[in-house]
Design goal:
The complex is a heterodimer of chains A (250) and B (405). Chain A has helices at residues 47-54, 77-87, 103-112, 120-133, 149-161, 179-196, 207-210, 236-242, and strands spanning 3-16, 19-32, 36-40, 62-67, 70-71, 88-91, 167-171, 199-203, 215-220, 223-229. With 250 residues, chain A is of the alpha/beta class. Classes of the chains: A alpha/beta (250), B alpha+beta (405). The complex binds adenosine-5'-triphosphate (ATP) and magnesium ion (MG). Adenosine-5'-triphosphate (ATP) binds next to strand 1, strand 2 and helix 1 of chain A.
Amino acid sequence: MSAVISVKNLVKTYVVGEVEVKALRGVNLEVQRGEFLAVAGPSGSGKSTFMHIVGCLDRPTSGQYFLDGQDVSRMSKDALAAVRNKKIGFVFQGFNLLSRTSALDNVELPLLYGGGGMKTAQRHKRAMEVLNAVGLVDRADHHPNQLSGGQQQRVAIARALINNPSILLADEPTGNLDTKTSIEVMGIFQRLNRERGITVVLITHEMDIAEYGTRMVTFRDGLVVADKGITRRRIAQDELAALPEPAEAV
Amino acid sequence: MSVFMILRIALKALGRNKMRTALTMLGMIIGVAAVITMVALGTGAQTSIEAQIQSAGTNMIIVSAGNFNMGGVRQGQGNASTLIPEDAQAIAQLPGVQYTASQSNMRGQIVAGNQNWNTQVQGTDVDLPLIRSWPLKEGAFFTPQDVTTASKVAVLGAVVRDQLFDPMTNPVGQVIRISHQPFTVVGVMGSKGQSGMGQDQDDVVFVPYTTVLKKLRGITNIQQVQVSAASAGETTKVADNIAQVLRVRHKIQPGDPDDFMVRTMEEMANVRKEATQTMTALLASIAGVSLLVGGIGIMNIMLVSVTERTREIGLRMAIGARGRDVLLQFLVEAVVLSLFGGGIGIALGFGVAQGVTLWQGWPTAVSSNAVLVAFGFAAMTGVFFGFYPARKAAALDPIDALRFE
Ligand SMILES: Nc1ncnc2c1ncn2[C@@H]1O[C@H](COP(=O)(O)OP(=O)(O)OP(=O)(O)O)[C@@H](O)[C@H]1O
Ligand SMILES: [Mg+2]
């Protein structure tokens, strides 16, 4: 089995003035291709810090991180930027879409970086494909302020998908959404995970959201304290079908 | 990332805040337009001075009575009574001197029939049209005979002719009155147009200098001797010789100052050229200050923009933008701002310069050099003032930038 993510003795220490904050104290973890990993744990336990390193936004103080078998823990900033562009898709709690910019242009954004040299028409085609994957083709020309929170998050997911990443990293993607919309977004993650085999790492502190994954690790004080498969996995598709209102009404 | 792509990103970013973009550009527009206009005014003045030297003849030398460098009684140039017609004759004998003309000028009221005109009456000699390379349009210039006998004959400048006679009449042979005395018109000069300082060279009446001395003013001294050297290259040498001869003639002791001034046309033109150059430099630097202010405006807006778009920068980094991509994006935004502003400013400056020529009558010339320099300066302003904010943006940590509220 090939591990997409493999971290060994990962340590991250922040120095704030005189004080050393140990955000991660030696995390060991392997995530296999096609897994849907939920990362849970109390606030301040180091989940986001872990995700930043896994997402190549930050480098560990010590320890090693192999992404697709490649040691990325000591790469240069520019090299990390290229890795983020090609292999990683981010979904944030706050969506982070460019305002006054159409959904299509937002989705295309990663194609502008990383030296792809794609033609405009090609970029549009690619962006429409991923917008289709999240069911938002008809909103391509809308600006973020013309979209609901759930739709904005779907645009953000489409943006994360456009470069066919190996992993999708989501830090509390449902934090700003209501229950039903959250289920819809989780449905998209599950479908991408199932149909495209994209590895998903989902950070949440809500237990019921974590249950959409296939495996759950729990952080506490910068360490992994629990790691187990999810026995009774929730399936968003079934839950939506069971809801009194038709889901297609969005 | 290709330049074209960066440009697209920058244009999109600028398009997202059109009002701010326009206002930031305005600073640049005004700065560049001011520089272009000021330099155009200066260059125009210089060009017209050059044209004037050409029209006056580069081999011309002017000897004036009096010397404003003289100590003691300060006498204005030309007002001292130190120069006499015999001096002119002595100058005429010098080697390298082609023509000489004694000058004695005055203002005079000219009357012809019921027409009335106040103008400059120049008492001069027969060679003046040759010295100034100024052809006649009608009739002929007065003769040496007229000068010896101090005849009351006059040659009209084009403006005076138009003021006194209707276009159908031939003025030659008509009698006019200069300061109540009758003069016969013998000729009309061709039109020479404005001189560099805006005086109309055609607003003049020429009469024999002897007539001015004896009949009009009752004096014996002249104000000037206009001299033309045989070749333009010799003017300085000839001028030195004239000074020596005059010092001897005027019995000036060694060490005492001249009681006359000898200046070549070139010298006079150079003095004025330098003055206009200084003026141009001054005006351009004042305008340059507004360009600087425009640049600072760009920096200010770019700094605000970087702060305001911190999350955007963080996001761009998260999806794969390298530091230099972000740096380039902001730098290009600043340069686009300043270049667009510069371009519009050049057009505006061009328009203003044209307007000044049209409504104010001042000569202006927008040189391609000035345009290039202004455009280059605008680009440099963009790079210079855009660099600091851009570097600030590029140096952001993606995580901090994403978290920024
Ligand atoms: N840039 C930083 N500088 C200093 N300390 C930091 C920094 N980032 C995180 N920390 C500290 O590291 C620890 C872990 O933070 P982290 O954001 O990973 O927690 P979390 O598990 O994501 O919490 P939450 O569920 O509230 O998002 C916290 O104690 C936090 O204060
Ligand atoms: Mg967190």
